[in-house]
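Bench log, entry 3. Co-assembly request; chain sequences pasted below exactly as received.
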Amino acid sequence: MSTTEDLTEEERRHKQRTRKHKAVVDAKIAAAKVDKGLVLVLTGNGKGKSSSAFGMVARTLGYGRRAAVFQFIKGKEDVGERAFLSRQPGVTWENCGEGFTWETQDLRRDIATARAGWEKAKQALADPAVSLVVLDELTYLINYRYLSLDEVLPPIRNRPDMQHVVITGRAAHADLVDLADTVSAIRDEKHAFRAGVRAQVGIDL
Amino acid sequence: MSTTEDLTEEERRHKQRTRKHKAVVDAKIAAAKVDKGLVLVLTGNGKGKSSSAFGMVARTLGYGRRAAVFQFIKGKEDVGERAFLSRQPGVTWENCGEGFTWETQDLRRDIATARAGWEKAKQALADPAVSLVVLDELTYLINYRYLSLDEVLPPIRNRPDMQHVVITGRAAHADLVDLADTVSAIRDEKHAFRAGVRAQVGIDL
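Structure output for the full assembly:
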């Protein structure tokens, strides 16, 4: 560390400024004392919603805790996140989808698939041994009315105190936003797909 | 699958609508034929930038490919993503930070730390065996002028063709946005911290 004596004028000003800023930041951190299980909603049209949820699965595993992932729309394709994370000790992974509506073109089957997936997710939402529940693409099931809010919200509200829930998908319903502790809206400023680049291994798959 | 005969009116309309939509989506997918190494910028003030990068590390590992992670600001605290991902075969993990400016309060040391980290990152950006390079919190080093754009941009531009780079951090510089193939701006609509909840294990750490 530089000693105070040999600092340039810029370095001295930097030290003063950052010392003041540290006091402000430390006060804010000291004011945040609560520990609780969070509901996070990751919505918007941009890239990074599901990826972010999988990053939190990795974080959870870093503490030797358990995570349960429910993928509600994506089909059975062998994607990277599933290949890697589903084989980790402590991870439960359920594919509860068969692709987007325009793939199946079968409303009755899509609803049945969604309901079967939700029944499984409810078990994880009642299990205090599960530290993180990822409900990937859940927003669509609500927006398409495959699941009602009366079915979805109570199991999330009544989950174990310290359990975290991450919900992803575009256009999150206002009631999900209300329920959430943290909401990130991911704006699509630029996307390689529009420049003719298809989904890339390790990034999109 | 339901047969066409036993469909309700709503189900039949759904089938027609989704069939049309599938044609539109399929045409777009058919138009995207390029494979290339992408630059992704995840910026904005909301929760989920670094988490998303770590999710893409998990995806990369799912294909047995290699990832290199450089954390430019965060200190040596034992966080979940590092505990879990850094011990995976195929992952190189470098802590190139000692905390935010207001923690060290030492401009000269912060610049030296940043430059040492960037020297290591340049090696990964020149290595075709590395499929994904994560430059976590790189935006701050540019915004604080610890690293110049002339130092940062060429190694990214000249990297191996199929290597992906993910850059995270608030307030990404316009030149980084220009260079990127995909840019997501994560808006902070709500954050548990403002309601008095401190950083939670498995979510923020």
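Chain B touches chain A through 89 residues (CB under 8 Å). Chain B has a mean pLDDT of 92.
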